[in-house]
Structure formats: C-alpha cells, structure tokens
Amino acid sequence: MIKSALSSSLILILVSALLSGGLIAREYHVEGIRGDDTASGTSDHPWKTIGRTTAAAAPGDTIVIHGGTYRLERQLAFTASGTEKQPITVTATPQETVLIDGGTNNCCITLQARSHIIFRNLSFTTASMAVGAQMVYMEATNYCEFSGCEFRGMPGPVGSENSSVIRCMATENGYSTGCIFRNNLFADNHSPALRLYRTDGWIIENNEFRNCVQAIGGKDSPLNMLVRRNRITGGETAFYFAGQHGCKNVRITENIVVGADACFQTGGLGTEGKLREDLRLFNNTFYDCKQFINGWDDGFTRGQRYYNNIFFSRTRENISPGSDLAGRMVNLNKYGKESINPEHYFMDWNCLSIPSDDTSIRFIDAKIRSQSIQEWSIAHPPFESHSISADPLFVDPEKGDFHLRPASPCIGKGMDGVDMGAYPHGTEMAVIGRISRN
Length: 438
Fold this sequence. Notes:
mainly beta
C-alpha cells in the first residue's frame, strides 16, 4: 500500500512538472458566447476571452478560437514564447470566422521579444486613430508566422507615418528574424500593410493586397528577405524599400501588381554610411500602373538589379515634367545634381511599354531626360540594351491571368532565356496571390 501510494504521488509530481514545463501540449478553447474565464478552458468548458489563453499558453500549446467577433479591451500579449519544436499555435475553428477587433485600442497583438508563435486563419481589424497605431506590433520577434489570416480596415496615419497594419520596429533589442507572412489577405487599409524595420530572413509570399496605401516595405534595413508570388491591386506603392539603414540580399520576384500608383520605390532617406546593396527586382509583372521605378540615389546604393520584369500600361498619364512623379518608367536621383553611377545598377531584359501618345518623360536621372529605351541605353550603357517596348500579350488580364500567349514577344526574351514577367518558365501552375483559406 505504501509503495503504491508513493508511486501514485511520483506520477502526479511528474505530470505536474511536465505540464508546468510545457512538455505536454495542451489545447485551450475560447468561445465568446458560452465561455467562462473561470472554467477549465477545454472544448466542453471553454474560456470566454482570448487574453485568458495568451496569458496561460506555454510551448507546444494550441489555442482554438471558436467563431465570432472578439472585441478587445486591451491588446493581446503572450506570457511565454514557443520553441522551434514546440511552437504556440493560435487558430480558428475549421470553417468558422474569427474576427479580432481592436476597437479604438492602439494594437490587437503585441509580439515584443517573443518567438515561435503561429497564427492561422484569423481575421483582424481596428479603428484606432492613435499616433503610430497598428494591428500587430513586432519588436525583436523571431520565427513567428501568420498564415491564412485577414487584415482589414486600418485607418489612415495620424501624427506619424509609422502607423501600419504590421509594424516591425527597430530597437536596441535587435533584429526580428525568420518571420513568415504567407497566404494572407490585406484589404482596404489606409495605412501601410507591412512596414518593416530591422528584419533578417523574412519570407513574404502568396499574400494578396487589395487597396492598401502601401503593400510591402523594408523601410529600415531588410536583410536576406524573400518577397515572392504576391498579388497587389491598387494602392499608392507596391514595394517600398527605402533601406534607410542599408539592406542586403533582398529578392522580389514572381509578383503581380495591378493598378498601383508606383510599382517600386527605393532610397532617399540616408543610410548612416551603411550600404543599400544586393536588391533584386526580377520576373515581376506590373500592369496598368502609373509609374514603374522611383528611386533616390544618396551615394550608398550598390548592386541594384532590375531585370526580366514586364512594365506595361494601356493608359496615358501625361505626367508634367515638373511633377515629383516625372519619369514614368524610371525616375532616379530626384533631388540629385549628378547622374547615378551605372556600375551600381543593372537594368536590362525588361519589357517597358506605355502608350505612344503619353507625353510623360520616360526616363529621368538628374541631368538626363530620355524619351525612349534606346536614348536611355545610350545615356547609361548598358542599361536596357536587351529590353523591348511591346504589348506582352497576356492571356486574359481582365480576369487576372497574366500568363503569356504563345505569340508574346516576352517569351524567352529574359536574361538566360527565361520568359519575362511573373511566370519565368511559362507553363508553371504556381499560384500567385492568396490560396483559399479553408
């Protein structure tokens, strides 16, 4: 009897230790209507608020949120981080819609010095007009992931340009590393969707951005970033990579951008002596956008490579030569007095085409004004020496199909013999944009 009692006690102690250490994964349930934060948090006895679960979750735990709208009284924060092998997962119940509404609060979720937390199939919104507001705040955030989520209705900035849907800040706590944004929808946001400062090793792929003032931005010092297979419709700027504290090894490829004011913007904010280098914009399709490449060379830019892209618009803009947006295809060194150094840029193997009766200046670089690809190439050899100006003959752009027809002049005309545009091998069935959430 004594031995049996001791064995039972040891088992209870071991189970308690495992639970407290997060070694046994638990599943917590949240249900706004019938939940009770004094209950056990099981599927039969769910908690009422999401904050109750984020305070309790440990490595390996899963938070299952049942359908409904959850209006927050305060932003959600996690007491613990997950681990590489035991992340914390926050997910909606399958086939149900979960809306996390920050109301007039500054933030829905803060991930400050947290890691290995996964968010799946959740929707977020906020009506916050606070200075520097955001839906998700990240700082020294490592290996966190948002997948299949929706972010809608962010108001415009008030008192700070740093208001954004996802705001990853640069602080003394260091870089945010290895985060993933995959298969999400950003819609009708009047602040930038992704405004990123010191990041390293991020992947941003298969997202969809609809009518967001700015889609994807590496404002501060993006390192080792892959931006791939996103679909962007409308908005002011598709890709904003100022790199104000330098950048390195950024790849922007196989994206489709439709109807944006500006396709790609870089530079202009100074780098404190750190180089903005090795950024590649290649094999993207830009359709019916007002301006293509907009940059300001401040003397710290190196290794910029723009190739195999299609820049095609059917509409005239007739931009005034005195406008900030003058230079409809390329506008570099807006405030500079000296032309850029061609050794620091590579621009070639692109399709660049706007209506012939558009009176806008095509290419601008400080003292240089060019009205044709040929003039630009002569002024900056070997810029665009293999580029073309033609209708790329998309399959059905009105229905969003930007594959190339068999007669397209862009087939096989990219560098290394690949096709220009977002489908470099022509027949691939890869999805560009968001895949169905459920």
